[in-house]
Amino acid sequence: MLNFLPSSIVGAIAGFLLFVNVVVWVSILFVFSIPKILLPWPPLVRILNRILHWIGENWIACNSGWMRLTQKTQWDVQGVEGLNYKGWYLVVSNHQSWVDILVMQHLLNRRIPLLKFFIKRELIKVPLMGFAWWALDYPFLYRHGPEYLKKHPEQKGKDFEATRRACEKFAYIPTSVMNFLEGTRFTEAKHARQNKPYKFLLRPKSGGLALALNVLGEKFNSMLDITIVYPDGIPTFWEFLCGKVKRITVRMRTIEIPKQFLHGDYESDPRMTSASSLFAFLIIFSALSASSAALFRRG
Q1: pTM, two decimal places
Q2: Which of 4, 133, 179, 264 is a plausible cystine mate for 208, CB 3.0–4.6 Å?
Q3: Where are the alpha helices (DSSP H) in 138-206?
């Protein structure tokens, strides 16, 4: 435990270990991704995907290692019992900080299949990480706004179809599809602009949720609803690296997905589109259950 050192030194050590971890595991991913590119034979690709998932899990395990070495965090976690490593999960969570991702990976690694996040297409250009996300089959979202589609109507639906093809790969190997229903990190400024429809959350967005249900449907065993609270205040990523996050509270609960939401045309059927939106609102509202709201108030 290096937390006795000055926080800036702890941050520098943690940042260095994070960087080394990225370089090492992305290099290994690269080696096993070459045959996946050159020999796209489905049986071979499925074997390689399992190897790549194993690499991803070890990458996360090493992240947990440097976190234990440099952090002195008190974890208050409930709800990880009974999770199925060989199942398919639709995972939703509130979103306050980039630290949320490390928190979920740390707590869920090898308890459920490797988490796959929806990522903006332009982030594929991020050095090293962009390639890693591609190699691990993270779904890249093509988000064409209304103005763009007015000028290029021929592109309508192509972003949905491209993302659908990416998600179809999840049908062959147990996967956890992660979606931040708020669509962005919570801030007081964003919260104020939305006239505060919820006390601790932004308005939910149902696009990613609808897409995952549309493609995978009955593959999902259940939904994993996660609430993350930082009792001492929402940290920046640098503050986390510096060991300044003393307490993290996490509550998880498994929710059965209603069967009527497992099928349907979420792209063009108005009934299913509105149903998906309603489902998203209901699920994110569940984060404001008595227990979750009590966590925020206590923080």
Answers
A1: 0.84
A2: 179
A3: 146-151, 158-168, 188-193
Structural domains of the chain sorted by starting position, each given as residue range(s) with its CATH number in brackets:
73-298 (3.40.1130)
Q: Report which of 168, 114, 159, 115 is spatially closest to residue 140, judged by C-alpha positions.
A: 159
Residue 50 contacts by C-beta under 8 Å, 6 or more apart in sequence? 173
CA 193 centroid distance within chain: 25
Cα gap 134→138, rounded to integer Å: 6
H-run or E-run covering 141: strand 140-141
Q: Which of 207, 28, 264 is CA-nearest to residue 131? A: 28
Phi-psi region of 243 (alpha: psi -120 to 50; beta: other; left: phi over 0): left
Per-residue tens of pLDDT for the chain, all 299 residues: 777 789 999 999 999 999 999 999 999 999 999 998 888 888 888 899 999 999 999 999 999 999 999 998 999 999 999 899 998 898 988 889 999 999 999 999 999 999 998 887 788 889 999 999 989 988 877 666 667 667 767 666 666 676 677 777 787 888 898 888 777 777 777 877 877 667 777 777 766 677 677 767 677 878 898 989 999 999 999 999 999 999 999 999 888 877 766 655 555 555 555 555 545 545 544 544 444 545 555 55
Q: Do residues 167 and 187 make contact, with C-beta atoms less than 8 angstroms apart? A: no
H/E stretch holding 172: none
Could you give the CA distance from residue 163 to residue 5 in angstroms, rounded to a whole number? 45
